[in-house]
Amino acid sequence: MRATLNRVQTAPLGKIRTSPQYQKSTCSDYSITVIQLRKTIKPVLSLTVAILATAYNLPCLAQTVSPQDTAQTPIPVPSPSSTPTNGAVPSTDIVPALPGMPVPVPELAPNSAPRRTLIPAPTPATPTEDTYILGPGDQIGLDIFDVPEFSGPNGNFVVLVDGSISLPWIGRVLVQGLTLEQAADVLTRAYAPFIRDPLITVNLRGARTLRVSVVGEVKRPGSYIISPQGQTNQILVGDAGLANGGAATQWPTITQAIQSAGGITQLANLRQIQIRRPLPDGSEQLVDLNLWELLRTGRINQDITLRDRDTLIIPKAETINSDEALLLGSASFAPETIQVNVVGEVGAPGTIEVSPNTSLNQALLSAGGFDRRRARRSRVDLVRLNTDGTAVRRTVAVDLAAGINEETNPSLREGDTIIVGRSGLTGFRDFLDDVFGPINNVINGVTDIFN
Fold first, then answer.
1. Domain CATH code at residue 162
2. Which of 133, 349, 403, 420 is exposed most, by the fewest CB atoms within 10 A?
3. Does pLDDT of 39 surpass 70?
4. Ramachandran region, residue 100 (left: φ > 0; alpha: ψ -120 to 50; beta: rest)
5. Whether residue 162 is found in the same domain as residue 216
6. Could you tell me the sign of the dihedral formed by the alpha carbons of 357, 288, 275, 131, in that order?
7. pLDDT reported for residue 91
């Protein structure tokens, strides 16, 4: 007791002074220190785990939304009473996700079965004259930046007969009636819940065959199936220019369709060509074109590309001069050959094939030229058939030294007939042969008997 009291120093009244070794509590200090360490180490450990997960995973997983984030933003599923705006029936096909990739689970009503639905596409905008519209049979390619699993060879998809494509994670997406740029925008919004800030490039790697109709002033009007050639330009979301320096598109053009129909006739009115183009909403778009500007000034924008179910109408010209006919015959979409008939006193009478805009003199030479003993070389008759079934016959004064002109050396058309008559002396000889021929035959017969 005395030893304890000796350690107590004298203090003022109301205060007790203790020894320094008793002023702190070792137990309480240890508890406080442990609590502080726990508060400090916990965020450090969380940050370390996140950094290690990011470092050891693939680059595409680094930008993938975490399951917690995905669970907070489920894919909206339409109610049973709602119907997609495009009228498509919801699909029950399940597209498996890649291993290791988080797949969000949509929030469903109680006692309801999980299902996948077609993602409705936006209302297609009215296409311009030269805008490609996607449809069943098209082969499209996706390139998602920093996601090689869905890019390059892994990004090839075919538009199905219902106008949709089946994609990983999101199922079926309707793209029929959309342009490439619109389809890229739809896919960007569809992948937004799975990939942070997706950058998607859409290109057309294989176009479907097109069925077009060509009517009017062509050699073989009717319906034709034309296959596109080449690759389209890649269209990048948010960029109206070319991506990666893509090459120009080689779609079937008006001139190619005319060539498939055998070429134009020489009565075609190229100034008032019309295209009837059905639109996705059921309406019809009329496009007026002037191919004469293409021939005269080289305006290539008049030779636009065709779309599936287009109808190309080439009207008949009321009048056409020889200069225009000459230019039409030399056009790339004119027929390669035409058939004309050369009869009468020529070396090889019959039907011959000549190039369009062949002159009368050239046709005569192709048929062997005049028969020097019998032909009348000063003039010939030209018979031309009209489209209404009538025929026009006129006499043309032949001048072998003249160039192409309507008076003495006109250019020929399909089905023209050239008649080369007999000379006057040849006609007289033939008359004598007709009159005295039988008598000569009798005299010759009697002479043969006596001989």
1. 3.30.1950.10
2. 403
3. no
4. left
5. yes
6. positive
7. 42
Structure-block tokens of residue 329: 């015959």
Residue 186 domain boundaries: 139-236
- Count of domains forming the chain: 4
On whether both 187 and 222 belong to a single domain, the answer is: yes
Q: Count CB-CB contacts under 10 A for residue 424.
A: 9
The CA-CA-CA angle for residues 63, 67, 71, to 5°, reads 120
**How far apart (Å, rounded) are the C-alpha atoms in residues 165 and 155?**
11
Distance, CA of 372 to CA of 448 (rounded, Å): 34
How far apart CA 412 and CA 362 sit, in angstroms, is 10
Average pLDDT of the segment spanning 370-378? 88
Which residues, in sequence order, are bridge partners of residue 396?
A: 380
What's the distance, Cα to Cα, between the start and end of the chain in Å? 191
What does each C-alpha distance from 78 to 103, 111, 240, 361, 388 come to in angstroms? 19, 16, 33, 77, 62
For residues 258 and 323, membership in a common domain is answered with yes
Long-range contacts of 403-410 (CB under 8 A, 24+ apart): 404/322, 404/326, 404/357, 404/359, 405/322, 406/322, 409/359, 409/360, 409/361, 410/322, 410/359, 410/360, 410/382
* pLDDT at residue 85 is higher than 70: no
Rounded to an integer, the average pLDDT of 100-126 is 44
Is 207 among the domain residues?
yes
